[in-house]
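Workshop exercise sheet. Pairs work together: one partner reads the sequence aloud, the other fills in the structure field after running the prediction. Swap roles for the next sheet.
Pair: D.N. / O.F.
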Amino acid sequence: MTDSSRPPVVMKFGGTSVADPVGRAALVARVTEAIDSGKAPVLVVSAMGRSGEPYATDTLLSLIEDRPSDTAECDWLMAAGEIVSAVVCAHELRAAGIDARAFTGPEAGIATDAEHGCANITEIHTGPLVRAIEAGQVPVVAGFQGMAPDGRLATLGRGGSDTTACALGVALKAEAVEIYTDVDGVATADPRVCTANTVLEVIRADELFQMARHGSRVVHTPAAELALASGLALRVRNTFTDHPGTLVADISAYRPDRVATAVSHNDDIARVRVTLPAPEGTRAHMSAQTRVYRAMADAGVSLDMFTPVGESLVFTVPETALARGCEVLASLGLTYQVQAALAKVTLIGAGMHGVPGVMARMAELLDRAGVTVLQTADSHTTISVLIPAEDTCKAVSALHDGFELGSLAADARKPDVAQ
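Structure field:
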C-alpha cells in the first residue's frame, strides 16, 4: 500500500509519445500536472517509435535474421527497447527537477508464467514501487516484460505495455490508469477506414474489450480484459493535446442509451471449409469435428466463426495461421477448400442485448452498400459479418452511418459515476 495522501495514478505512454524530445516534453508536463494535483505517478513506457526507428521492437528484431530457438534469449532483444525508453524518460524527468527511477519489469516486481514471447502476468510484488513512491520518486517501468519462473526475462506479446499498466493499477490500487497515445481517445471506427468516426467520451469496459478483440488497436486485448474484470478506472488520452479522452466505465455503473457504440474490423482473414468423412448427425461426424478442433488447438491455430454446415465444417483463421492450419488438415487426411482475402467487421454495443431487429438492420445496410455477407456470428454485445476484404471500407462506413455512430452526443453518453 502507498500513502493515501498521495494516491497512485499509473500513466502509460506509447511509443510515439516517447520517441522524440517533443513527446518526452509532453510526458514531463503530464507527470508535473499529476504531481501538482497531489497524485503519485507511476509511469509505464513502451519502446521508442515504430518499425525502422532505432529502438523500436521490430527494428531490434531485424538484427537477427531468424529468431533463436531459445525464445527467452529472443525476449532479451525484444525487451531492450522498453528498457532504453525507461532510462531516457527517467533521465528527462530528473532534468526537469522530478526525482525519478527507471525499473525493468522484473525490478518492478512483475512475475509471469513461462510462455516466453507471450507471457501472462501471474503476480506483482509491489514492494519496490511502493518504496520508491514513499521516497518521493516517480517510478518509470519498462512495459511489456516481467520475470518468468526460471528467473529469465519474459515479454508479454504485442501491446503488452498496456497490460503492464493495468496490472500495476490493480496491484497498487491506483486511483486510475491513464493510457497516453497519439490519438484523442477510443474512436467509433478506425479513422483510416471511416472518416466519419468520432471519439467517444465514455465506453463500457465490456465494449472496449470487444473492440480490442475484434481489431481495434487503441488498447491491448489483455489490458481491456483486465479492466473489465477488475472494474479498474481507465482513461485513454492524447499525449499531445488537451482533449479529455475516453473514460472506460465500470459496466455496473453505466448503461448506454444506444444500440451500438462502435464498429471494429479485422483484415487478413481466411475461411476454410473442411469435408468431414461421415454423414451429418452421426456420432462419427461429431467425432471428426472434435478431431479437427483438437488438432488445431494442439498446433496453436486459433479458430473463429466455426460452424457445421451439412457434412462440412466451416471456420475462419488469420491468414498468418493458414499454412499451419492446412498442414494440420492434410495430416488428418481431410479435404478442404480455402477462401482468402476476407475481413471480419463487427458491430459492438452493450445496448443491443435483447433488442430485436439489429441483425435485420445490419443486413439491410450492407445490402444497400453492395457488400456480400459470407457468414455471421453474434454474442450479447457483438454481431460480426465475414465479407470480402475489398469491401471493408464500404461495410464499416455503412454500419457507422446507418447506426448513427458519428452523432453520439457527448452529454448523452456520460456515465452516472465520478470522473
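Discussion prompt: The mean pLDDT is 92. What would you look at next?
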